[in-house]
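Summary for the funding panel

The consortium committed to producing paired sequence-structure records for every protein in the target list. Below we show the first two records in order, beginning with the earlier of the two.
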Amino acid sequence: MNFIGYRSDALGAAVELVNAVTGTLDKPAPGEPGPAADQMRAVLVAHGFLAGRAPATVEPALRAWARRLRTVFDATDPEAAAVAVNALLADVRVEPHLSDHDGQGFHLHYSPPEADVVDRLRASTAFALAMLVSEYGVDRHGRCAADGCSRVFADTSRNAARRYCSPACANRSAVAAHRARARAAQVSER
């Protein structure tokens, strides 16, 4: 599901940015490596942003933005999510226009033509979260439901059943629930 019609995956970038910062503030999800040097630039590349145009100081700027994005994922009711999204949108310059740079054909940009890659990412991720919240409220995003995990997710599936940041957390939770049921059954049989 592409929420904003942009050639990059802005929603996926928002999730990965937040989770990259979560990995530095909290422990990474079990089985996942800790933060790597230049991790934020890697998120830009992975989600279709032209990271070669990013300044050398991209890491601190993107880490600060990721902490701001997290406020949307932490919101548990539509009003709080709207306040968080509106705060993001107030801090970005949105000037939609069609662009055909680098042989990509015409596509929509949300920031002005002179904006650098960090400002483009900020505008695109803010807009992607705005679309997600406006279309689905708080039912399609949030914190991972696994015990001990503070990473986030955005659910772009058709059935909107996602509650975990990764299959690893979903599997660990399922195994823990199964073991708890088995222990309860053994106790009740005695």
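The next record, for a separate protein in the list, is shown here:
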Amino acid sequence: MALAGRGVVVTGAARGIGAAYARAFTAAGADVVVNDLDAGALETTAAELGAHAVPGDASSEEGVEALVAAARDRLGEVDVFCANAGVARGGTEAVDERAWDVSWNVNVMAHVRAARLLVPGWVERGSGTFVATVSAAGLLSIPGAAPYAVTKHAALAFAEWLSMTYGDKGIRVHAVCPQGVKTDMLWNSGAAGRALMEPSAVTPEQVAEDLLVAMEQERFLVLPHPEVAQMYAGRAADPDRWLAGMRRMAAGLPAVTMGTD
């Protein structure tokens, strides 16, 4: 799709993948609203790009409503919404309820709440694009981080559901599923996370570039690490073999130390 003059919203845009998305959309001529909880860092990024900063919580119902209202006020139309904000919480099934609640609200319900506000208008006019930053963990999994793995699977499922429900009504959906990306989330993932992802980690700019190519080609899955497609196919073809391999891999790793609060 031609991006010049389009209204784009990117959450989690103060740094990392979100900032790279905003930079790429701005360079393509889009009018961009950026959002993040870190208001100070967000203002810096917005000033650098000439984007509109709307700080706040893009996961709560009230926060999403405020963001979409502010974006419509500044852009007129929201043509592309990038649900990029995410949290990485580690631990097993025994991790405390807060880790599950935060993960569910940020990684899944933020997407649902944004779609709830945007999709009716997009269907009425016959166009709109929803971008979900998921993770290869949503296609595969990750040892030692149950809240992250489970909610990223749910984020992928919701993106698939949006596409199958509204794809013939002019709405395009893209699920971005990288493995390691050189961001704070990777550096803070502990020894196990870095051992799994750092060797093949790509830059946020590469993820943004791959997204724009996928948008041009109208592809649902965005895979900055193409090998993930083969892993995903292997998982589907022989789940028992795949699970056995995951157990072997997990046994050789130190504990994942993603945030657990």
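Regarding this second record: The mean pLDDT is 91. The two ends are 40 Å apart (CA to CA).
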